[in-house]
Input
Amino acid sequence: MQSKLTDIELIDQTLAGNQGAYAILIKRHQRFVFTLALRFAKGREDAEEIAQDCFVKAYRALATFNKQSKFSTWLYSIVYTTSMTFLRKKRLDTSSIDDENVYIQLENHSSGMDNNLAEQKSRSFYVNRAIEQLLPDDAMIITLFYKGEQSLEEIAQTMGMEANTVKVKLFRARQRLKERLEQTLKHETKELV
Output
């Protein structure tokens, strides 16, 4: 029955001391929080750590949540800032976080298992692979807009920028995604022929 409650009702119950209500909130949002974290971290372990940190931060700040906006928007802004902090710390350990070869190496290193052939041939595999090669802000905007189905205003709130800026960034991110897909698919076609 509690799983049918709205996010706001679950927050109210959590603030009243019901820890199970927060567990439902986590379960409801954990997959997407992990997906967003993975867009930044590029490694499963790091993404899991970021996601866990986000839920801890959200729990500690739950009393400050403004119930006029969506909980998911507020939570995704925590994911964004936590991921940016993570990247700044990680940048000290890497030569260049913007270098696409670093992304590919991190993905190859972290995957551990080869994807099966059917998955490699799927559209979503290529789209996700192309998104992983984008800069973190581009990947975040694309992910929030298409997978999170958030409006430009919600993305602006999450990322702390104006809606018009998000609109321009989304347009440019789509262009870069298109270029990555063209490069990837061109390379894959050469390998198949």
Summary: The two ends are 55 Å apart (CA to CA). The chain has two domains: 1-96, 114-193. The chain has ten helices and no strands.
